[in-house]
């Protein structure tokens, strides 16, 4: 149930990225204004639905890789979005029941649904922070209430950095977050990319809707977020091509305008 202060922060007159994305992945936590721009963009560029679905599947594969193969037991998920199937803590705790996860977002709708993110195994822990990407040190300080920042952390920033208009600022925010994490930590990023005319047109339509803009970037700029880190194979690739699983329902031959990568701090 929304309290009055939370309700006052929700603007249903304009689309919102978390609700818009929720609509694209088949969720029910969205409003008519989100569905209208979603349907408009589907007519311009149906491939954005594939981007939404395959980006979510990448999250699962990346978390499993870190938990199973790298032994990571802590995750900091910034730009959480609305809860759906296979959230970070669900994937991680299937592999490692003692995994600890902190979610970070500053959207009131996400905050209203945060309890769905706080289900945890008895051995592990989950927490939700109503905090801002633009203040990395405050995020890290608050996350330290749940995570041991002297031990490796998986930093997840998925489909979020496109909201930072200035590329240099986006890189600096990532740098500051990683600076507060120890060696052995990993950075996991995915974002939509300016790799087709359709995606560029979809981005322009979305940004004209009154929503907080989301800027698609060249692949080289996505790769730049990993400067100074050791890229995990296969490097920065389309989200369908990052360690695809035969039974994962992902067609690696389907072109998607979203790239991703995982990098390790040495």
Write structural notes for this entry:
There is one protein chain. The protein is an alpha/beta fold and 266 residues long. 38% of the residues lie in helices and 15% in strands. It has helices spanning 4-8, 17-24, 32-44, 47-69, 88-95, 108-112, 136-143, 167-179, 197-207, 219-224; strands at 74-78, 100-105, 125-130, 154-158, 186-192, 230-231, 237-238, 258-264. Strands 1, 2, 3, 4, 5, 6, 7 and 8 form an 8-stranded mixed beta sheet that branches. The termini are far apart. The mean pLDDT is 92.
Question: What are the main properties of this structure?
Answer:
single chain, about 270 residues, alpha/beta, eight-stranded mixed sheet, 10 helices, 8 strands
Mean pLDDT rating: 92
Contiguous uncertain segments of 5+ residues: none
The main β sheet shows up as: 8 strands, mixed
Q: What is the radius of gyration?
A: 17 Å
| Count of extended strands | 8
Q: Considering DSSP H and I runs of 4 or more, what fraction of the residues is helical? A: 25-40%
Number of helices: 10
Q: What structural category characterises the helix and strand content?
A: alpha/beta
Shape: globular
Gap from first CA to last CA: 44 Å
**Hey, roughly how much beta strand do the residues contain?**
15-25%
Order of H and E elements:
HHHHEHEHEHEHEHHEEE
């Amino acid at each position: 149930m929304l309290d009055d202060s939370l309700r006052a922060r929700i603007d249903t007159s304009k689309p919102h990225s978390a609700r818009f994305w929720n609509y694209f992945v088949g969720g029910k936590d969205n409003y008519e204004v989100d569905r209208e721009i979603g349907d408009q963009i589907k007519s311009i560029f149906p491939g954005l639905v594939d981007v939404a679905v395959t980006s979510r599947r990448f999250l699962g594969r990346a978390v499993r890789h870190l938990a199973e193969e790298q032994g990571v037991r802590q995750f900091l998920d910034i730009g959480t979005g609305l809860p759906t199937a296979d959230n970070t803590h669900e994937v991680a705790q299937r592999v490692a029941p003692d995994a600890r996860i902190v979610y970070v977002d500053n959207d009131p709708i996400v905050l209203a649904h945060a309890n769905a993110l706080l289900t945890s195994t008895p051995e592990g822990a989950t927490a939700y922070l109503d905090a801002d990407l633009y203040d990395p040190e405050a995020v890290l300080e608050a996350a330290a209430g749940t995570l041991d920042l002297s031990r490796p952390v998986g930093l997840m920033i998925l489909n979020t950095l496109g909201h930072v208009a200035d590329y240099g600022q986006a890189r600096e925010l990532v740098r500051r977050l990683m600076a507060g994490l120890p060696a052995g930590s990993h950075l996991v990023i995915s974002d939509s990319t300016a790799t087709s005319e359709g995606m560029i047109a979809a981005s322009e339509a979305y940004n004209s809707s009154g929503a907080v803009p989301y800027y698609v970037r060249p692949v080289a700029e996505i790769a730049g977020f990993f400067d100074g880190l050791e890229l995990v194979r296969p490097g920065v690739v389309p989200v369908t091509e990052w360690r695809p699983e035969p039974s994962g329902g992902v067609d690696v031959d389907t072109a998607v305008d979203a790239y991703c990568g995982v990098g390790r701090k040495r």
